[in-house]
Amino acid sequence: MAAGRLFRAACAAALAVALTGCDTSQLAPRNTATTPQTRPAGLVPPKPAAATPAPQQASQASRDLARYYARLQSDLLARGLLRTDGGGPDTLYTDEMLLRNFQRIALADEYRRGSGLSPAGRDDDSAIKKWTKPIRVSAEFGAAVPAEQAASDRRQLSAFVSRLSRITGHPIAMSDADPNFYVLFMTEDDRASVVPRIRQIVPDVNPVALRVFETLPRSIHCLVIAFSDTPGGYDYGTAIALIRSEHPDLLRLSCIHEEVAQGLGLGNDDPSARPSIFNDDDEFALLTSHDELLLRILYDPRLRPGMTAEEAMPIARQKVAELMGGPS
Question: CA–CA distance from 304 to each of 113, 128, 132, 296 (Å)?
Fold first, then answer.
């Protein structure tokens, strides 16, 4: 991919922000310059999906974004990326690979807490991040989002939320009654309403997080920010995902999968994770079976928020053995 198209969906390392004191977290924009693994000849990339046209009343800026993202999706599909097959004979992985990927994705942060897009260093310790309370997901749409598209996005989000609940065994459901995981579908023309809405949801949100939303470049397709119930904590209590509505259908669905899944606590991307959406190369558009296993490991009740790698990895190894049928 051209060098200008560097960041993909996931400012999703979940900016882990504390509700009180708001010592923000990690952003994880996805880098699409990474070259994907070679695919076997028998796997043929899907035909490019038609882009969802921007509404006639959209501004020039919004129409320009819609055209840009339509070209981007077509380019990715033509290169065999944005796969929706979940993996195949070219993406086999072992129990040790799964364990390694869990450690790198769930127990590492791409960006330093409280510093926006500043990369985390090797010495920056992290820990298990997850929800312990029920998750109530709501979908909100900007005034400029077409009604038909909003209805489709709500259906896609609802289906994915149900899938995540089955995978994790954690109570996750769509609800407009006292939600704590907000998914905002907004166009460029809705930009002015985004920051005020975030302030309504989290009145003492860190200004660093707000600046990311205020100055969002087109290279960041969507993002999620998660907040702990305790200052500096790892037990999530609120999350906000922002998805650009100018995306064509597959990119928008990809954003739903990545942002909501990362908002559950899989906060990092790793170039060796495959088949996975937690990777910078855009090879896979949708949550894979590998990613489902990562979530099942994370939501094992033996793993608690705040556990270090030293504490968590022996438990994760036991869980991987249970999932993969290997020795404990």
Answer: 20, 7, 8, 13
Q: What are the φ and ψ backbone dihedral angles of 185, each rounded to 5 degrees?
A: -100, 110
Cα–Cα distance measured from residue 90 to residue 40, given in angstroms and rounded to the nearest whole number: 6
CA 167/CA 288 separation, integer angstroms: 12
Pairing of strands 30-31, 7-8: antiparallel
The C-alpha angle 295, 296, 298, rounded to 5 degrees, equals: 60
Please calculate the CA angle 101-126-199 and round it to the nearest 5 degrees. Answer: 110
d(CA 317, CA 328): 7
The angle subtended at Cα 84 by Cα 83 and Cα 89, nearest 5°, is 70
Check: pTM over 0.90? Answer yes or no.
no
Eight-state DSSP code of residue 210: H
What span, in angstroms and rounded, lies between the C-alpha atoms of 322 and 188? Answer: 46
Residue with tokens 């954690």: 170
Q: What is the spatial distance between Cα 120 and Cα 123, in angstroms, rounded to a whole number?
A: 8
The tens digit of pLDDT for each residue in 41-50 reads 555 555 555 5
